[in-house]
Amino acid sequence: MNFPFWQAGDGFFGLLFILTKTLFTLTTLSAFGAGVFLALGEKNPLFDSHSGYREFMKKFTGFVLFVVTVLGTVSYSALWIIYILTAPATLSTIVHEFVWVWILQGFAYLLEVGSLFVLYSTFNKVHKENHVDLAWSFAILSLITLIISNATLSFQQTPGHWLNTLKFEDAWFNASYLASLSVRILVSVQTGGILALLVISTLDKGKLKTEVASHAASFVIYPFILLPFATLWFLATIDPGMVDYLAAGFSGVEEGNLSVLTRFVFLAVFSAVSVFIFTLLGAVLNADGFKRSMGFWLVILAFTAAGSTEFVRTLLGNPYAIAGYMYNNGIKINDADQFSEGFLAKAKWTVIKEVTDENILAAGKELYMYQFSGATVSGGYNSLFSLAKAATNVQETLDLINQIKWGSESNLYAAYVPSFLGNDSEANALASYVAWKNGVFEPTPEQIAYLKKFETAPAGLVQ
Questions:
Q1: Which of 315, 152, 352 is nearest to 241 (CA)?
Q2: How far is CA 114 from CA 65, 67, 129, 364, in A?
Q3: Radius of gyration of the chain from its Cα atoms, rounded to whole angstroms
């Protein structure tokens, strides 16, 4: 534990992480699809013969410029801040493994944004062929950044041989790299088409709107047809345990007893299908009726589909930040044995080093903070509090803690939460805190007072 804990309330950073990741995914992935749309759009005969079409293309380029440089940059910066505050150990590992790749990505992104600025500022000012080349340059640079970011994201879920070799090439070309890249490219083309449809919704009725709407709709419809195959390929490359976990969520469908994971899978599928139907009925069959409100709802559906998918992907990754290597609390699997003998005394930034009767609640909270309140598990689905809800007292809660303890052979929750690391007194402290939060334990006034001191002025309690 080389980093301090940043506390911001249960579930806050988890929700913020999902929303920011969704916005970042949609804005940055859209660049490649939008670049291809721009390059092909300028080859359209309408570009030379219809001034309204040229105005649309310039308007669309300006909109893409806003999405990539403003929304993309803001969401990317916010994502870095969230990672730094909540998962510094994970970020440190990824940075050390991909540092030169990220430098290359940053350089490619600067060129990508630069080419987009030039593309917009030179509309109707340079030869058409040169402008088309600029559009393709933007698309290719966007694809390079997509390829690089895909390597780091897929590495977290399927590090594969890297766990044994720690070699860069094994981290890059991990088990799900190509499959996840195919999914992201298809989604990129779709989001590029959705951005185009959003701009098209502002056009007046007429033949121009019908033609460009049909062209933009093809960017949404054809990738949708291929996405199920790419998704099945991706599922075939990830840990079978994740697939079993996903399949298990559908076991209660017939009885109407759906898990949270299953509901979000259904929401993602429903939203994606709705985007397809919305595009087909609105942009293809009734382009003149495709108004601003319809473009707005199309974006909402796309955001819902992306957000639900990101939530499902995050849950499938639990309890790891890097599968098989590091828990989402930042503790490496290889360090688990040393912490299992006593966590508080060995962790670098803990306030309490030894459990006493007076500080048992505060010690339990600190153990919970460092081990079970990672950004993806805090206070929400399959949190430690929810898993212990059936317990009626401290002893039953302690039985659960011992069940998930590192080295336990009866751990039924290994796919949900990290293993508990600590000695018996720390296990009892954690059980007391969880039982108190769940309303099945009544602490003494001294224990409550110490907890309040820990929460308001921890510096004065440093042991």
A1: 315
A2: 10, 14, 19, 52
A3: 25
The answer to whether residues 164 and 224 belong to one domain is yes
Residue 327: in which H helix or E strand, if any?
A: strand 326-327
Number of domains in the chain: 2
Q: What is the pLDDT of residues 218-247, one digit of tens each?
A: 999 999 999 999 999 998 998 887 777 777
Q: Which residues contact 133 (CB under 8 A, 6 or more apart)?
A: none
Q: How far apart are CA 84 and CA 71, in angstroms?
A: 20
The residue segments making up the domain with residue 410 are: 333-461
**Backbone torsions φ then ψ of 326, nearest 5 degrees:** -145, 130
DSSP 169-235: HHHHT-TTHHHHHHHHHHHHHHHHHHHHHHHHTTSPSSHHHHHHHHHHHHHHHHHHHHHHHHHHHHH
One domain, residues 319 and 361: no
CB-based contact 432:441 (threshold 8 Å):
yes
Q: Last residue of some domain: 327, 362, 385?
A: 327
> Global pTM?
0.86
Q: Which residue, among 314, 150, 324, 185, has the nearest Cα to 246 in the 3D structure? A: 314
Q: Are residues 315 and 340 in the same domain?
A: no
Contact 384, 374 (CB under 8 A): no
User: Each residue of 309-343: pLDDT tens digit?
Assistant: 888 888 787 788 888 898 888 888 988 888 888 99
